[in-house]
Amino acid sequence: MSGTAAALAHSKIIQRLRSLIYLAYALVFAFGLFRLSYDYFHTEELARAEGRLSLYQSTLQAELERFSHLTHVLAQDSFVGEALTEASTATLNIRLADFARRAGLDAIYLMNPDGHTIAASNYASANSFLGQNYGFRPYFQDALAGRQGRFYAIGATTGAPGYFIADPVRASDNSVHGVIAIKLDLTRLSESWRNSGENVLLADQSGVVLLASSADWQYRTLSELPDEALYQIETARQFPGQTLGPLDWQITGQRRAEIDGSDLLHLTRGTGVHDWTLHYFATDDRALARAGLVTAVAMILLIAGIGVQQLRRTRRIRLALFRAENEESKLRAANVRLAHEISERRTAERKLRRTQGELERTSRLAALGQVAASVTHELGQPIAAMRNHLTAAQMTNSTSSPLVGSITSLVDRMEGITRQLKFFARSGEDEFEPVDLVAALHAVLDLVEPNRAAIGADIATTLPRQPHLIRGNRLRVEQVLTNVLRNALDAVEDEEAPRVELNLTQTADEISCEIRDNGHGLGAATLADLQEPFMTTRESGRGMGLGLAISAQIVKEHGGILQARNGERRQGAVFSLTFPTLEHGDTA
Fold first, then answer.
1. Which long-range contacts (CB under 8 A, 24 or more apart) does 378-384 make?
2. pLDDT tens track for 359-417
3. DSSP SS3 for 36
4. What whole-number distance in Å separates Cα of residue 501 and Cα of residue 488?
């Protein structure tokens, strides 16, 4: 037996070693295939990126050169020459506005040798160039020197970026006596990059990003600017209001760069103008995905081949597994039946406990009704007699005695207690009729106004204008609303900013009234606790604890639900009364 056990252990070790060797071969094969596939697809992605970069380069060059000869043509226009020698420029303003509109240019404007603008296509706009001096711009200085000037900058007047082209306007003696300039809007290039989902930026010779597919990249610098470049930018007012902070990027390898935390392919190409550079960033996720797909397919085929070899062995153990699964299925079904039975039993127990609780509460209320009927009957006549004697004493004595006043207040309190007890002695056979909760709430608000004014509380109401009807007894419904609202006012009496919110909402089936306060809340008490007769959270002498018990019974008689909970973060309390609508209420 020991020799057999040792042989089995040795066989298991051999099988594990063989499995580890096969796994190592598979991993080496997968890694090599993935690397070869990635290199191939990576080359394809680079070629595609080169094509996209060439397209963007040609588009940019075409846009920059499209109007390069327009300023030279305008410089030969007779109206332009006359405007420099004559005082009137009204005709030229209209003419330049028509040229700019037809050509799709931001502006065309004429400057005298001092740099002052004397005519402009935007003469009628609020940000007109008329009267502005642009002598500090490099394009003006180049044109004044007799050559074409080009410059990209943020507009000093409009604040909008643009590409400026200027040419000298020569007099008959070939001297320069003015400069004609145009402004191109290149932002549509960056918009097209952004809309196509590409990552592209255009940087000038100093490394400042002029255009970019991402708005966060614009006016950033690819590297730290030297002092000379900063001085030139400040002198030309090229980027007013821009901090020219460094761009979050770095070169990570050949044709790779990291920008905004993403490692991407990075290709650059010159534009042929101003020594500007176009940068194109592309992800190689597609190359990774395609290489992964090729590797996955190859591994699936390899695993399928291994699976065929293991098929015979699988067949031998299939019957055993089938028997085990059959037994497990039977056991699982038995467990499901047992769990279902346990769930049904727990549900029945919960219903039983709930029914027992309702029976106990009903029994206590019934007993309380008998006691209340007896107490109110026995105390009614003595209290009435005491009030008659007190009235007679007050009528015979001209001066009011403090003792008489104290006894009178005690009698009033005794009558209030018997009035609460009378509720439990009633038969509950009041007639039900349509009751408007909106009107009832307005009446209750008027009733508790002295309580509110006494503590300076703020009652915020959200009540609709149209009636919200339920079927019930109006006086008893108002009794519930008054009781809950007074409880809320009592709860906020000691708060610095006492506030009560009253909201009334309606759905197709029910109407809900929510009363929320910022008082001390319910604490650890539940609504079931508060519904118990003589249960109160107020200090001694401030109530008998019958209010919520009475209110809960009235709401139940009307087919409604009374709910209570602590407010958010256990601040204040929220009482909710829900009644069925008139159409869905008890019509019996």
1. 379/414, 379/418, 380/418, 383/411, 383/414, 383/415, 383/418
2. 666 656 555 555 655 566 556 657 766 777 677 776 776 555 666 666 776 666 576 55
3. helix
4. 9
- Per-residue pLDDT band for 19 (boundaries 50, 70, 90) equals confident
Strands 458-462 and 499-506: parallel
What are the DSSP E strand ranges found in 477-566?
A: 499-506, 510-517, 561-566
Number of C-beta neighbours around residue 424 at 10 A? 22
> What does the block give as tokens for 441?
């709430």
Cβ of 246: how many Cβ atoms within 10 Å? 13
Task: Return d(Cα 519, Cα 498) in angstroms, integer.
Answer: 7
- In 61-139, beta strands by DSSP E: 107-111, 117-120
Q: What is the DSSP letter of 130?
A: T
Amino acid identity for residue 503 in this structure: N
Where is 399: in which H helix or E strand?
Answer: none
The answer to pTM > 0.85 is: no
Distance CA 395, CA 409 (A): 17
Q: Produce one character per residue of 518-549: b if its CB has 16 or more CB atoms within 10 Å, e if not.
A: bbbbbeebeeeebbbbebbbeeeeebbbbbbb
